[in-house]
User: Which sequence fits this backbone?
C-alpha cells in the first residue's frame, strides 16, 4: 500500500507544482513521446532479460505493490514452530521428525502454521535443512555451510529482476534524449508552419526529456530499491531458519537454538525475548 501512496505523492507533487507555476497539465500529454520512451524502455527490457527473469520481475512488482512482508507476529509463529519441531527431535529422537519432514502435509505441527506452509520456498528451505540431520548424511558442523550455499543462491536469483530494473532506470534519461532529438528533427520540418507550430513541437520534444527522467527517478529506480528491501527481508526470514536449524543440529537445546535465531533478527521484527520464552515454555510439545 505504501508504494501506491508514494506514486500518488510523486505524481501529485509534480503536477501540483507545475500548475502552481501557471502550467497546464494538458500540454504534457504528447502521445508520441509516451510511445517512443515507454516503447523503447520495454524493448530494452525484452532484449536484456530472459523470459524467467521478466516473469519473476512482474511477480516482484506485484508483491511490492500489494504484498505483505513478514512482521513480528510472523517471526513469532516461525520460532514457535521451530521450537515444536526441535522438542520432538530432542524428546523422541531425530527419527521421530521423519513423519513431519517426509509428509509435511500430514504433520500435526505444520498444520498449526498454514501461513508458513503456504509459502513453498520457505517450506522447502526448512525441509532441506532438517532432512540431512535426520538422515545423518552430513556432520552437524557442515549443515550451516550447506544451508548458506542454498540461501546465497536464492539471494543471487532474487537479485536478477532488480538488476534489470536498475538498468532500465539508468537508460530512461538517455531514452528521453532520443525522444527529444526525434522531436527536434520533427520540428525542423515544421519551421515554415510558423512560430506557434514550432513552439508546440519544441514543447513536445522537451516533454520527452522530462518523461524519461521523471519515469526513471520517480518510479523505476525507487521500485528497484523497494524490491531490494523485499529480497533482504525474505533472506532474513530464511536465515532465521538457517540459524535455528544449524544451532539445533550442533546439539544446542531447543530453547537456546530458537533464542539464537531470535537474536539474529532486525529489531523491527524481533519478538520480545521474555514473551517468546514464556510462550514456548507453556506450549505442549513432544508429539
Assistant:
Amino acid at each position: 500500500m505504501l508504494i501506491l501512496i508514494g506514486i500518488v505523492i510523486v505524481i501529485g507533487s509534480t503536477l501540483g507544482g507545475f500548475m502552481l507555476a501557471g502550467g497546464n497539465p494538458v500540454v504534457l500529454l504528447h502521445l508520441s513521446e509516451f510511445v517512443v520512451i515507454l516503447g523503447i524502455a520495454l524493448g530494452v527490457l525484452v532484449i536484456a532479460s530472459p523470459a524467467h527473469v521478466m516473469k519473476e520481475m512482474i511477480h516482484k512488482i506485484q508483491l511490492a505493490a500489494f504484498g505483505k512482508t513478514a512482521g513480528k507476529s510472523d517471526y513469532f509463529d516461525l520460532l514457535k514452530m521451530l521450537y515444536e519441531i526441535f522438542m520432538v527431535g530432542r524428546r523422541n529422537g531425530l527419527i521421530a521428525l521423519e513423519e513431519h519432514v517426509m509428509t509435511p502435509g500430514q504433520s500435526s505441527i505444520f498444520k498449526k502454521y498454514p501461513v508458513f506452509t503456504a509459502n513453498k520456498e520457505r517450506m522447502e528451505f526448512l525441509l532441506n535443512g532438517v532432512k540431512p540431520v535426520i538422515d545423518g548424511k552430513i556432520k552437524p558442523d557442515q549443515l550451516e555451510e550447506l544451508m548458506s550455499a542454498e540461501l546465497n543462491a536464492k539471494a543471487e536469483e532474487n537479485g536478477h529482476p532488480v538488476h534489470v530494473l536498475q538498468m532500465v532506470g539508468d537508460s530512461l534519461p538517455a531514452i528521453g534524449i532520443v525522444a527529444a532529438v526525434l522531436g527536434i528533427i520533427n520540428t525542423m520540418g515544421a519551421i515554415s508552419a510558423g512560430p506557434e507550430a514550432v513552439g508546440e513541437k519544441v514543447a513536445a520534444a522537451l516533454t520527452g526529456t522530462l518523461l524519461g527522467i521523471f519515469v526513471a527517478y520517480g518510479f523505476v529506480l525507487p521500485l528497484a530499491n523497494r524490491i531490494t528491501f523485499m529480497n533482504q527481508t525474505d533472506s532474513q526470514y530464511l536465515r532465521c531458519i538457517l540459524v535455528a536449524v544449524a544451532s539445533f543440529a550442533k546439539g544446542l537445546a531447543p530453547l537456546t537454538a530458537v533464542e539464537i535465531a531470535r537474536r539474529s533478527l532486525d529489531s523491527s521484527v524481533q519478538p520480545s525475548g521474555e514473551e517468546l520464552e514464556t510462550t514456548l515454555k507453556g506450549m505442549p510439545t513432544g508429539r
User: Anything to note?
Assistant: The first helix runs from residue 2 to 20.
